Amino acid sequence: MKIAGERLLDAEGRTLMLRGANVGANARIPKVPGGGTWNSEGFFDHREVSFVGRPFPLEEADEHFERLRAWGFTFNRFLVSWEAIEHAGPGLYDEAYLDYVRAVLERALEHGIAVFIDPHQDVWSRFSGGDGAPGWTFEVAGLDIRRFAETGAALVHATHGDPLPRMIWPTNEGKLANLTMWTLFFGGNDFASQTRVEGIQIQEYLQGHYIRAMVQLARRLHDLPNVVGYGTLNEPSAGMIGMRDLNRRAGRLPYGACPTTFQAMRLGAGFTEHVSTWTIGPFGGIRTGAVEVNPLGVRAWLPDRDPIWMHHGVWDVDAAGRPRLLRPHHFTQVGGRRVRFHRDYFRPFANSFARALRKVDPETILFVEGVPHDGPIPWKSAPQTALAPSAVDVPNVVHAPHWYDAMTLFLKRFWAWVAVDLERRRPIFGAERVARSFTEQIGRLIARGRDSMNGVPTLIGEVGIPFDLGDKSAYKNGDFSRQMDAMDTTMRALEANLASFTLWTYNPDNTNARGDLWNGEDFSIYSPDQRDDPADINSGGRALEAVVRPYPYKVAGTPLRLRFDFETGSFRFRFRHDPRVTAPTEIYLPRLHYPQGVRVRVSDGSFELDAARQRLIYRHTPEQRVHRIHVTRR
Question: Do 539 and 566 sit in the same domain of this protein?
Fold first, then answer.
């Protein structure tokens, strides 16, 4: 696979339109969560943790890769985590896990499955309500994970208990644990310069360990031809970097108890606060009242550690014992210069990450995603002789953003006739306008990457729908009609933009009762609870008629238009051929939609059907520049 401008090409110069899934959502949680013991110094014992067997046991790999291949998902986003590699302590790598990932991806290669590696995280770590970073990262920063619940520093399912409000986990973005760790990871040199670990500034310490952990994985995988690249980091956060007003809350959508940033600092230091509470409405958060948090005055910091932001002069306590904010603009300026997160902090990190990996695998592709809904990522690509090295970003890059319909995602409802354009903060009414809005939103996402990242290709790394729409009883009985409508609307918008993408998600451990086993989410296109015929490769699939669709996999030129109607089976594709490409165009035609075969009409040239591989092989004529293919059910 190689990059040519805005296109991804195969070895024969054909344009690749990539489709796959995220494999899988269960990789965010360990197979063995650890003993939960504490040593004499009050630190959690992480040695017993193991992610071996995530996303599935090695002996089940052939079954899952065969299914993904049959569904046309030949390019997948493979989830790993920093914790999975380095959970036991700084510099202690889980060799068994690294061996396991190698063995699983060798099986993928045997099935013709390619992947890019996704170092996954959400709100920093499972100890702060998400997944990703090892627990010891909090300890080196001075935070006490045992006190996050009482101090409101994080909302964690394990300590909150059931029922967990739907989609409340993202509110951890605005709580102390997540805000502190991301600020230290990306900007500790500037904003917490006095905080050192083993004599190293904490930003260098955290980033260094993360990058070296991923280098360990790259060393295991560098010779596998089906591992084409690495993501920088799933949905990173800016923490408090660039935050203008610390008396406002942080995070995307208020839900539950949402402290302001200064309140979060005070709560962590042992102060009791009355925190505003919110619920989710159709067009955003709705304030519902307030709740008292941390009435016992517990601290979120280890006994021998001062609160970092108090130590660095952001705030202190006056003579009467009242907290006061001293540096409200602490996170917005450095040396009199206004900071910008993507320019000043994310780009240097992403370049360091890429250069470290390319010492192991010089050809690896970098899949870049920035902070969701936080504007474009500026990326310059030029020879190192043309600009100062600090102004040059590494080449061989793919823009890998995420997209979900906000209303479907947060409300767990889908109405074909009403939606919200979250970026433009406006409602959309009418089925045609909703469909058009989805297409426009995805189009803007692709255009942003093209314009700000100097014309690189885009692959949408996450896109999909929650399957727990409304009452779960319907799909427990096999009725996925509502989910099919929601998925089809999203898929048609992707097709209209000729987008490459990996669906969120394929989870072998999904259940109807517990979803994806993480924070109550339920996004998997596969569930063993729907599997009733072990001999049927499609058994276990959810809303498959909308998920599994024909598409042009390798195109001998430039794709121009793609449309598919899953109800009628009508597939139309148009492309302009590249005179330099002699290899044929290949189109995936799933038996799921064409059980009795197909009728094919082409504008010119010839075709053949490869039923075993579910492929249509089309050879165009050189005389006609634009070519049309129309497939219907027999």
Answer: no
